[in-house]
Amino acid sequence: MSAAHTPGGTPPRRSTGRWRRSRAAVVLTALTAFAVACSSSANNPGTAAGGDSTTMTIVTPDTGITWTLDDGFGGFEQGKNVQATLLRKPFVDSPQGRGVQQQDVYNYGPYLASSYDVSPDGLTYTFHLSDAISVAGNELTADDVLWSYERKFGTPGSLAAGIMAPSLTDPAQQLKKIDDKTVSFTIPNAGLGTTFLALLSDLCGQIYDSTELKKHVTPDDPYAVKWSAQNPNYGFGPYKVTDYKPGQSVTMTARDDFVLGAPKVKTINIRIVADPGTRANAVKNGDADLAENVTPADSAALSTDPTLIAPQVSNPNTYIMMPLVTNKAPFDNTLVRQAMAYATPYQQIIDNVYRGLAQRKGPGFLLDDAPGYSNAGFPDYTYDPGKAKALLAQAGFPNGVEFTLAVSAAEPDVREAAIQIQTQAKAAGFTITIDEMPASEFAQQRTNHTSQAFILRDYAITLTPPYELLVYTAPNGANNFADWYDKPFQDALATGNTLPDALSPEAGRAWNAAERIYLDQSPIVFIGQVQPNVLVSSKVTGYAWTSDNWIDYFNFGKTDS
């Protein structure tokens, strides 16, 4: 998951409380382990997947549950379902059918805010709050909104401040309480509007119950962050946590007083199961309803089973990518980076590793369905070892180059892709050593730029073109994986950011110009878009891909057969 300083946007006008497009009037380790985990919840009669239509069991690896952005970086899925945001992105049907859905990522509608207004100059957004009630029974107020952002920006280590800049950098100055049920945000310029609305719909837009949290404030913990890391029931979301055993299980219970209505699935049982094959078999055997982080091989092998669904969406935002770190040889040379782009066997990786559960629409990384945007005119990077060898010779390496490619041991599909690259790039003159390392070490090297190159799956949560363009390029940013800076690129991006409508054809041309520079320089080789790595029982309806790739449990339904 990636975040960065995110300029760009549209100045929407008065909301009518309906879902509308943002550029117009916008509104609002083993089977035994699995068996043990299930038996530990024997007092929950719906733990087994085959129980009834009101209970679901999800098997997942241990992602290190993080209940909010304020207390670290980890698995946010469960936190997402006990929290809620001012706005939300609606779901539409996926072309796949079979009950699979996907978010409309350029549309922002009501959630904790029932509506909002925009000032004529496009700078001030005034939100009218709903009558939402928290898990603790407190009604949502403007004070909750202001205190939530005070906490997000005042807590050391919080990710929200970095994600929301430059739309929001100083909540004390930019947020204003109008009355108990009305609050306003003022942004620096109107062009930030679309990205600002998208961010309010994503994880950093969660609003907390300040009345409940203030009960647990201490001099050493002025925002109750330490307390809330272990006590998650301080949100306005659709579920509350009724049992939590870190590293083992979570049980979540539906809230009948949720602002959007009672969830259809009343109990969600999350079980930690380390082995991906075991997770896939749990759904196949009917012991679970949904498995997360399933390997592409298992998804492909089981996708023909009529009792299972391997979800596919039209434009997944998870990319398998290979950053080429530019602060050291050999990738301080643009020609060598271009050669690597031609030495990468894109289609072979999609076919052999992802079994077709990935796609390559082009060499770029902006989602191509953004209004006003076109990905025409980009370099045609395909596997062409002859062209790669010629570029290496032009760069002064007629005998080829050697480098080490880092990969995380936690991503077996990515390791398979690295092996494909290692094998096929030999014909282009690249000798590659694969350095497989623990996930923690891999995470560290990806931000401190110590590797020559590395390969991973990653995605931008907020999918406006200016956000996506900056997410991997922000100077000195943690997600500038390739440690790359180019003034013409930054100037082209700045040109787009001066425009009032980030989704207009004029802005689309600016984003195309900036992306073209990026691709010509090739600091990251974008291999392909990867489909969701989940496996779902056909009894489940309402699985939906979301831009943050965490599942929205409220959308679930389940049949008895």
Supply the key terms:
ABC transporter substrate-binding protein; SBP_5; 2 domains; 4-stranded antiparallel sheet; D-Maltodextrin-Binding Protein, domain 2; disordered N terminus; globular; 7-stranded mixed sheet; SBP_5_dom; alpha+beta; signal; 18 helices; Dipeptide-binding Protein, domain 3; transport; 561 residues
CATH class of the largest domain: Alpha Beta
Radius of gyration: 23 Å
Large-scale geometry: globular
The CATH topology name of the largest domain reads D-Maltodextrin-Binding Protein, domain 2
- Tally of DSSP helical segments: 18
User: Strands of the biggest beta sheet: in what spatial order?
Assistant: 10-11-12-1-13-22-14
**Total domain modules:** 2
Compact summary:
It is found in: Cell envelope. The protein is of the alpha+beta class and 561 residues long. It has 18 helices and 25 strands.
Could you explain how this protein is built, in words?
By secondary structure, the protein is α+β, with helices and mostly antiparallel strands. It has two domains: 265 residues, 3-Layer(aba) Sandwich (D-Maltodextrin-Binding Protein, domain 2), CATH 3.40.190.10; 213 residues, Dipeptide-binding Protein, domain 3 (Roll), CATH 3.10.105.10. It contains 18 helices and 25 strands. The strands form seven sheets. Strands 10-11-12-1-13-22-14 form a seven-stranded mixed beta sheet. The two termini are 36 Å apart.
Task: Give the topology.
Layout: H1 31-39, E1 55-60, H2 77-82, E2 87-88, E3 91-93, E4 101-103, E5 109-110, E6 113-118, E7 124-129, H3 142-154, H4 160-164, H5 171-174, E8 175-179, E9 182-186, H6 193-200, H7 210-214, H8 225-230, E10 239-245, E11 249-254, E12 267-272, H9 276-284, E13 290-292, H10 296-302, E14 308-309, E15 318-323, H11 334-342, H12 346-352, E16 358-359, H13 385-394, E17 401-408, H14 412-424, E18 430-437, H15 439-448, E19 453-454, E20 456-458, H16 465-471, H17 487-497, H18 505-521, E21 524-530, E22 534-537, E23 540-541, E24 544-545, E25 557-558
Parallel strand pairs: 1-12, 1-13, 4-24, 17-18, 17-19
Antiparallel strand pairs: 2-5, 3-4, 6-7, 7-9, 8-9, 10-11, 11-12, 13-22, 14-22, 15-20, 15-21, 16-21, 23-25
